[in-house]
């Protein structure tokens, strides 16, 4: 399923362990704290508890950078 909601939905799906693939577009610009967050807080007590992904694709669509990631379990290395 493709979920393109907002920071709260993205964080909720990650917290629930329901994200097996990420598709991320990066613009060649920096907004800083004035920008809208892509992700709400993930209350992690340890860094080892953060969701981890492996990059599986990179592309340059125009001036942006597109990167795609999969969980380690999707790649057979859980």
Give the tags.
3 strands, 78 residues, single chain, alpha+beta, three-stranded antiparallel beta sheet
Q: Unreliable stretches, pLDDT < 50, 5 or more residues?
A: none
Return the structural class.
alpha+beta
Mean pLDDT: 86
| Number of helices in the DSSP assignment | 1
Quantity of strands, as a count? 3
The portion of residues forming beta strands comes to 25-35%
Shape descriptor: globular
Order of helices and strands: HEEE
Radius of gyration: 14 Å
Distance between the termini: 21 Å
- This entry's quaternary arrangement is single chain
- Residues in helices, as a percent range: 10-25%
Strand order of the largest sheet: 1-3-2
What profile does the largest beta sheet have?
A: 3 strands, antiparallel
């Amino acid at each position: 399923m493709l979920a393109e909601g907002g920071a709260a939905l993205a964080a909720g799906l990650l917290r629930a362990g329901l994200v097996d693939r990420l598709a991320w577009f990066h613009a060649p610009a920096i907004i800083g704290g004035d920008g809208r967050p892509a992700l709400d807080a993930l209350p992690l007590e340890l860094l080892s508890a953060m969701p981890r992904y492996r990059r599986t694709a990179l592309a340059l669509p125009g001036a942006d950078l597109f990167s795609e990631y999969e969980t380690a379990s999707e790649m057979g290395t859980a």
